[in-house]
Amino acid sequence: MKRIVVLTGAGISAESGIKTFRDSNGLWEEHRIEDVATPQAWQRNPKLVTNFYNQRRKQVMEALPNKAHLALVELEKQYQVVVITQNVDDLHERAGSKHIIHLHGEILKMRSEEDPSMIYQSNGWEMDYESTNAHGHRLRPHIVWFGEMVPKMDEAIFQTMKADIFLVIGTSLEVYPAAGLIDYTSQTCEKYIVDPKARELNHIQNLTVIQNTAGEGVPALVNKLIKNV
Ligand code: APR
Q: Is there a contact between 110 and 131 (Cβ–Cβ < 8 Å)?
């Protein structure tokens, strides 16, 4: 079976009602990154950071996977598929994708500040900023904040290097290291970008740019890839 690696960003969840970050009306217009999405913000004002993620978590729990998430699952009938997502929602999981790498963490999980291997599923959307685990460790959102390492990056690079086909869906490709993953694809790898604002990347060969929404563009591309097998 050929291998498809999919890199997704906020744009794939936009049609599920979850705001993107950098579009007009996006999250970073309403909130300053340094107030809510850095380790320093968490140290300074954990209540504000917790409220921000509580609102995000509530929105995610109310959302449903859309046609694009569901179409990616169809690919698994014909290909080995790995989804690398920058999204912290669980819409790929709920759609049914089997192999998902969350580069930027998962909003429905919390973890110990002292031992990052202690990870807990959150109960409901509302987290208390003073909550602790049984060892008395304070819990923080299981999110990769700006300025933090991206622990799953090595695994993402490893998968990308082996891809026969690489799809990029709904990301502005402004945040590194995720944005640099496409540079690890092989020359023979077929690459596609689906995003209404997608641009050509001059240094990337074998690239097809599809300027369309995920809801329309992804099911059409999936149909084509399934027919091509
Ligand atoms: N279908 C497909 N793409 C869409 C749609 C849609 N319906 N609507 C918007 N988009 C595209 C936009 O054109 C844009 O290119 O989604 C992209 C969203 O870009 P960003 O808001 O920058 O989101 P993303 O690339 O996922 O951000 C990366 O930045 O702040 C962080 O940690 C956060 O993981 C996030 C990272």
A: yes
Classify the phi-psi angles of 192: left when phi > 0, otherwise alpha if psi is within -120 to 50, otherwise beta: beta
Q: Which of 16, 18, 21 to mutate to test the pocket of ligand 1 (most atoms within 8 A of CB)?
A: 21
Q: How far is the CA of 31 from the centre of ligand 1 (A)?
A: 16
Which fold is adopted by the domain 1-18+64-104+150-229? Rossmann fold (3.40.50)
Q: Rounded to whole angstroms, how far apart are CA atoms 8 and 62?
A: 20
Q: For each successive 10 residues of the chain (229 residues), what is the average pLDDT? A: 98 97 92 96 96 97 98 98 98 98 98 97 92 96 97 98 98 96 97 96 94 98 95
Q: Whose Cα sits closest to atom 4 in ligand 1?
A: 11
Closest-CA residue, ligand 1 atom 14, reads: 172
The β-bridge partners of 120 are 110
Among the atoms of ligand 1, which is closest to the Cα of residue 15?
7
User: Does 142 participate in catalysis according to the annotation?
Assistant: no
Is the CATH number of domain 20-62+107-143 3.30.360.10? Answer: no
Rounded to whole angstroms, the Cα distance separating 218 from 92 reads: 14
Any idea where the domains of the chain sit in the sequence?
Answer: 1-18+64-104+150-229, 20-62+107-143
Please work out whether the CB of residue 22 comes within 6 Å of at least one atom of ligand 1. yes
Answer yes or no: pTM beyond 0.90: yes
